[in-house]
Structures are given as structure tokens and as C-alpha cells.
Amino acid sequence: MKNLSFSKVMLWFGLIFLYAPMLILVIYSFNESKLVTVWGGFSPKWYGELFQDEQILNAVWTSLRIAFYSSTMAVIIGTMAAFVMTRFRRSWAKLTLSNMITAPLVMPEVITGLSLLLLFVQISETFGWPTERGMFTVWIAHSTFCAAYVAVVVSSRLRELDLSIEEAAMDLGATRLKTFFLITIPMIAPSLIAGWLLSFSLSLDDLVIASFTSGPGSTTLPMVVFSSVRLGVSPKINALATIIILAVSLVAFLSWYLARRAEKKAKAAME
Length: 271
Prior knowledge:
Helix 1 packs across helix 11, helix 3 (54-87) runs antiparallel to helix 8 (176-205) and helix 7 packs antiparallel against helix 8 (176-205). 78% of the residues lie in helices and 0% in strands. The chain is mostly helical.
């Protein structure tokens, strides 16, 4: 008991508070009963039914494609915005652009989704395109708000860069474009990867904005899960959540393993 400090107690309390619900969810994904709150015995049958549910499988594939396209576009837009925020001289135009870029970070998703819906409706009435809302409009919407997160992450890295390295490359004859791709991009690569992963997670998890901007045939996974929960939680949702938790855990463990191995190699090279 002497080694049991207040900080350790709070640490374990926090871990239990965060991960106990996930553990219960994983256990009940093997529940035989259709009632998710009543234990009816151990059975993996809901995993089999999950992989036979075409609606959920189609929603998963749609969400993954939208998340991939949105995160990629968000990295491109967010990186350009980060360069404007960090490299351009201070002016009212730069300040205005910076405020507009970071606005989606504090804007309620309901307002963002509704404004994008009105925008798509007005564009459709004016130009006749897009003719209907679907995966394309969801992609544009997700790219819009995810780019703000990428801009913040990348700009923080750009402020830490030593500009003399880029200046040295240009003094040696490299053009600005070549310097950007061969010098700047490798130096900010960790922030680009972090922004891409953050955007992918935000897009995959989004419900509100996708509900406003989606249409027939573009139902995402959060929308399917939310509609299923309103009618009563199905054990298939527990099985789906367990698979997602397992996939995220594997990616996190692999990232930690690769980072630790790289750190060991760096220490060995220094010795």
C-alpha cells in the first residue's frame, strides 16, 4: 500500500473508465442471445451473420473509400493552406485566410453540414451539377472540414523547420518546386502522415455531416450503425465494433513496434 500513490490510483481509474466499456462490448459480441443486455451463452454466430449482411458490408466499403479520398484531398489542401499560414508575410488577407481555415475546428457539425447541403442544392439549381447527392458530395464535405485539421498539424511542423536548409538548396541551383518536393516534403513527412491518419479517422467516424450531404446509395457505416441503434442494438453491431477495435489495436501496435525498432537502430548507429 505504501507504493500506491494518488497518481497511480487515478491512472488505473482512468484506464478502467476508458477501456472497461470496450471490454464488455467485446465479451457481448460473443453472446448467444439476441438481447445484448442478457447473456445467453458463448457463440461466435454474430460474426458469421455480420459478414452476410450486405448492407453493413457495403457501408463499410463506402466509408473506407470516402475516408481514403477525403484524407488524401485534405492533406493536399491543408498543406497548401499551412504554407500560406506560415510562409506568407503578415497581412489582413493572410489573417482572414487563417481564420477561415481554422473556423471548421470550432464550428458545430450541424451548422457545417447544413451549410454544405444548402451549397450543393444551390449549385445544382444554378449549374445543374451535381444532379444528386451521393459519395462525391460526401467526399467534398469531408475534405472541407478535414483540411482544417491537416492545416493545423502541418503548420505547427513548418514553424519548426530551419529555413536555411531550403535556402541552401536553392543557392545550389534547385528551383522552388524541386526544393519543396526533395527538401521540404521529407522534413514534414511525419506531420503529413499524422494529418492523413487524423483525417481518415474523422471521415470514417463522421455521422452528422454525412447525413446532410449523402444520398441514396452512399450510406456510410456510422449512418447504418445509428439507424440500427435507434431500432434496437443488434449483436452484429457489437461484432463489428470488436473487429474495428482489433484492427485499430493492430495498427497501433505495429506503429509502436516500427517506431521502437527505428529508435534502437538510431541509437546503435550513434554508438
